[in-house]
Amino acid sequence: MPLTLDQLNQMSAVDFAASLADTFELAPWVAEAASTKRPFATVTALHDAMIGALRASPAERQLDFLRGHPDLAGKAARAGVLTHDSKSEQAGVGLDSLSEEEFARFHRLNDAYKAKFGFPFMVCVRRHTRESILVQFERRLGNDAATEFAAALQEIFYITRLRIAGKVSGEGMPQVNGRLSTHVLDTHAGRPAAGIAVELDEFAGQQAYRIATAITNADGRTDEPLIGGRPLPIGRYELRFAVGNHFRSRGIEGGDPPFLDIVPLRFSIAEPEGHYHVPLLCTPWSYSTYRGS
Amino acid sequence: MPLTLDQLNQMSAVDFAASLADTFELAPWVAEAASTKRPFATVTALHDAMIGALRASPAERQLDFLRGHPDLAGKAARAGVLTHDSKSEQAGVGLDSLSEEEFARFHRLNDAYKAKFGFPFMVCVRRHTRESILVQFERRLGNDAATEFAAALQEIFYITRLRIAGKVSGEGMPQVNGRLSTHVLDTHAGRPAAGIAVELDEFAGQQAYRIATAITNADGRTDEPLIGGRPLPIGRYELRFAVGNHFRSRGIEGGDPPFLDIVPLRFSIAEPEGHYHVPLLCTPWSYSTYRGS
Amino acid sequence: MPLTLDQLNQMSAVDFAASLADTFELAPWVAEAASTKRPFATVTALHDAMIGALRASPAERQLDFLRGHPDLAGKAARAGVLTHDSKSEQAGVGLDSLSEEEFARFHRLNDAYKAKFGFPFMVCVRRHTRESILVQFERRLGNDAATEFAAALQEIFYITRLRIAGKVSGEGMPQVNGRLSTHVLDTHAGRPAAGIAVELDEFAGQQAYRIATAITNADGRTDEPLIGGRPLPIGRYELRFAVGNHFRSRGIEGGDPPFLDIVPLRFSIAEPEGHYHVPLLCTPWSYSTYRGS
Amino acid sequence: MPLTLDQLNQMSAVDFAASLADTFELAPWVAEAASTKRPFATVTALHDAMIGALRASPAERQLDFLRGHPDLAGKAARAGVLTHDSKSEQAGVGLDSLSEEEFARFHRLNDAYKAKFGFPFMVCVRRHTRESILVQFERRLGNDAATEFAAALQEIFYITRLRIAGKVSGEGMPQVNGRLSTHVLDTHAGRPAAGIAVELDEFAGQQAYRIATAITNADGRTDEPLIGGRPLPIGRYELRFAVGNHFRSRGIEGGDPPFLDIVPLRFSIAEPEGHYHVPLLCTPWSYSTYRGS
Fold first, then answer.
1. Could you tell me if D188 lies within 8 Å of chain B, comparing CB atoms?
2. Which one of A153, B225, C101, D197 has the fewest beta carbons within 10 angstroms of its own beta carbon?
3. What is the distance in angstroms between the CA of the first residue and the CA of the last residue of chain A?
4. pLDDT tier at A81 (50, 70, 90 boundaries)?
5. Do A288 and C288 touch (CB under 8 A)?
6. In angstroms, what separates the C-alpha of D169 from chain C's closest C-alpha?
7. Higher model confidence: residue C73 or residue B172?
8. Of A135, A258, A291, the CB nearest to B268
């Protein structure tokens, strides 16, 4: 159960620091430094104060902080010595179950990265698909040292913002979650299409992984967002709609086989905290989609 | 080089029959019977007369005619004893290169079909994809004898119509070819999208086979139809358009990764002699398609 | 301030009848008859009981009831002797301010109708535009007596349902209101179009009357429905969107003059209690609309 | 009957000059100067040479040339002393039949323009609607002298290019004509919509003038372009399609009154020599349009 912002504002400095000690990986001093800035009007202000404390510390201390992080999908992950937060974050994106080949690829990237920058690769894995992590990893290997140091701190910002949002409740919560939703309109009948089977896949290279299925309700929507209550992982997706069955059940003749049966919509997500509404307007002979709101 | 209708109208009955002897598989008597109906005003009338001769013959002779056909993808195909026409038609759809498993499936269907109906399964393979042939085969196995006899003659009609259209030129050619075309409009810029890479796949079950690639020209079209100059094989298809590269080359910001990159349009063809125009209207954030004309 | 259903269920039969006496025009006996069916679980059940009382009464009494109604836009309206409810209902659709020509047309229709059916024309004016009332009037003049008697009672049902919904609050309110809404998406930018000026006209023949104006908000919607909190009048409408100004303000080049400037959407409403969502998806070079939900 | 480019290349210099003397209003010296540049490979090159001769002449002579033109809709037009070409060009756009008020407005603009620039307002009227001419007139009154001198010569270029295209035939004709076309697809049925009544209006302020009507053919197109064989007049237009009748004739239920009956598409033309394809994709409940090709 999360702490409330009020509780954190009122407890002793020692208790405050202890409560948030593990927000910044192996760096309880960040929470200690932030404790002096209390009271905080919003949870966002609390997080900003912790980030401020990190940025205000000597460069060498920031570097030590970065160096204290585990490798992504590294030996620590395999050997089971990660902190609790790191472990569940890395597992969420499947980094705890890589093939030997993928493990080797991460291993090579980790080594090259540490050799160049002197600290492990930081990325807020909950904001990415497995594919996107590899894209980021290879792209950021090309950065110069100053750019990459800033990029690493930005990822620390995303990681700790999510941790704070999970630990603390109160006014002014940071926006950490996105939403992916859909809506199917049967523009042949002029009404929502109910009972449409919907599948959502995430891509990793040529592979597609099923991550959600749903059936549209009477309003042509899914009862729950396709992805919600968490950041939307940056990456490539395909939504598929079984519209052939729908029109067949309405007794509409659309050819044999029907011109449209399974309609795929392939799109990417680039804003983890955004709202992606990806509707389908459909007849047996036409369809359209768009990023809506 | 094809014969002209005029030549066929004017040659001796013997020469006429010889010229068209192999139109109806191992049944030169069909051409002989049609020779008495000359002259023909159109190539379609010539074909109709041959079909008329077949339908006018005794039921037993029609049955013998059907029995004279090879099994589809059968041992005759493997042993290389098909007539020239049958051989190239079966090769066109890939029936000469089945896996052992597929061969066994066709073998079982052939046996079941012949046991039920007393003649081999007829299908105009040039009007079907491999998948569609199997769908037809299994569906028609459920027919009663009279329905299936009519269905077999209808396929003979399609097969011989294509053969006549290949052998004879002249007025009133039968409509045997279809056309699949596309058109890409960039509705963000209000003009055709040139230089878009287009791929066309045909599906067989979960497998997809590349059957065409093209680049759109200045008018947003492909220089040649995606399929043309032949019947459109009944079956399931996917067109893919590399619109992400197009918008990137125009300097348009569509997210990182871009909301739309490769746009797939999945549709089926049910009318082999029809025109399927499947355009894409696209912005970086929306698209639509329809069966056009 | 409306009565509550609870109050009506608990008051004396006399008070109940007095409270609802004017629901059925000049027919307090309907409320008296319904009082014996109490308690009502829902407001809809209360109204159904009143309708039931009317239908259960002798045919002659029903006919007297119909005869007790004023002419539509008739002399009573002009002379100011309508009941309070009739007066405000007829004024709402502009029937109190007809031109001499329109008045004469209504007068002729009223006379022809009464001569044929023996009672005045009933129509729930709040569910219609002025144009639609005339369309209904002329169409129903062609009915036979039984069909028209049923049609008149159906209108009484609509009229009194609205009156009850205005007088009584409680569980199970009847659905008497519709909603007309819009939404503008800029599919060139991939986001809602804010600040778009929207106009809504209602048609009466060749004339158009402005009935609403609005500016789209940050979500591309209007803060209030274009029509809401009342039945949607059956009739023809045009929505217009000033998209040219929008794209100009974004610095988008769309031609001089711009290909699209004011986009009109012309549509009809046929379901007064329905939800009509009429969105606009727009680029400088394309747009689409549909009946959404 | 037009002269051929070959004839012009081979005739005497005197005959050449005489043949093209009236191309540049009251300035036969332009044709004389161009005669020395013969032979011309294309009609475009011939026109370019004449324009070159004008631009190469002394500034004072160019100014005299401009001064030799009649006022637009001026007294000369009313008094019937225009050259033949000027007369028919001004009549084409309705400038010979202005109301007193419009005449007065043109008169005031002409006076202000000549007072500022010293020559009459030049505009290629065949490339404009009446509304667009007034827009240009008022906009160009704000130009500085050099900008306006260049603008006037550009209009001379358009006027004389049209005259040359009308007088001379041969290789390399200049592109002087545009085309406005439409296409109606019934995406409810998946085929072209035949028999749709189409109207085209041109706007002048709040007034709309019918300029074309057509019925769609079996391919959903009009047999002739809505505007063709001439420049498309710059201006605002509305196309209207009677889709309600179409769906009613197909027996489709779309509401009473139908959600869509007359669909208006309002757009502007800015490129007189361009191709504007403005199709309608329509179901009883949705439609879309775009600038196509």
1. no
2. C101
3. 32
4. low
5. yes
6. 32
7. B172
8. A258
Distance CA D52, CA D64 (A): 17
What pLDDT, in 10s, does the model give residues D91-110?
Answer: 777 777 777 888 888 889 99
Whether the CB-CB separation of B284 and B252 falls below 8 Å is answered with: yes
Q: What is the DSSP letter of A127?
A: G
Greatest Cα pair distance, chain D, in angstroms, is: 73
Which one, of C260, C265, C288, C276, lies nearest residue C185 by Cα? C288
Per residue in A165-223, pLDDT (tens digit) is 999 999 999 999 999 999 999 999 999 999 999 999 999 888 899 999 999 999 999 99
- AA identity, residue A75: K
The pLDDT value given to residue D281:
98
Decide if the complex's ipTM is over 0.85: yes
Q: How far is CA C138 from CA B208, C108, C143, C152, in A?
A: 61, 11, 10, 14
Taking the C-alpha atoms of residue A265 and residue A278, their distance in angstroms, rounded to an integer, is 9
Whether residues D284 and A190 touch (CB distance < 8 A) is answered with: yes
Shortest distance between the Cα of C224 and any Cα of chain D, in A, equals: 22
Cα diameter, chain B: 73
- Residues whose CB is less than 8 angstroms from the CB of residue D31 and which lie 6 or more positions away in sequence, other chains included: D16, D17, D18, D19, D20, D21, D23, D24, D50
Tokens 């399931």 belong to residue: B236
CA A52/CA A46 separation, integer angstroms? 10
Query: C62: closest CA among C118, C6, C10, C143?
Result: C118
Q: Which among C262, C268, C290 is the nearest to D266, CB-wise?
A: C262
A72, A95 contact by CB (below 8 A):
yes
Q: Do B290 and D185 touch (CB under 8 A)?
A: yes
Q: For residue A101, how many other CB atoms are within 10 A of its CB?
A: 7
Supply D183's token pair. Answer: 């296409």
Say whether residue D281 is in contact with chain A using an 8 A CB cutoff: yes
Contact flag A293-C219 (C-beta cutoff 8 Å) = yes
Q: C244-293, pLDDT tens digit by residue?
A: 999 999 999 889 999 999 999 999 999 999 999 999 999 999 999 999 98
Q: Which of B125, B245, B121 lies closest to B194 in space, CA to CA?
A: B245
C292 vs A contacts (CB less than 8 Å): 185
pLDDT tens digits for B143-173?
999 999 999 999 999 999 999 999 999 999 9
CB D183 within 8 A of CB D279: yes
pLDDT category of residue A239 using cuts at 50, 70 and 90: very high
| Per-residue confidence band for A77, with pLDDT thresholds at 50, 70 and 90 | low
pLDDT (0 to 100) of residue D14 = 94
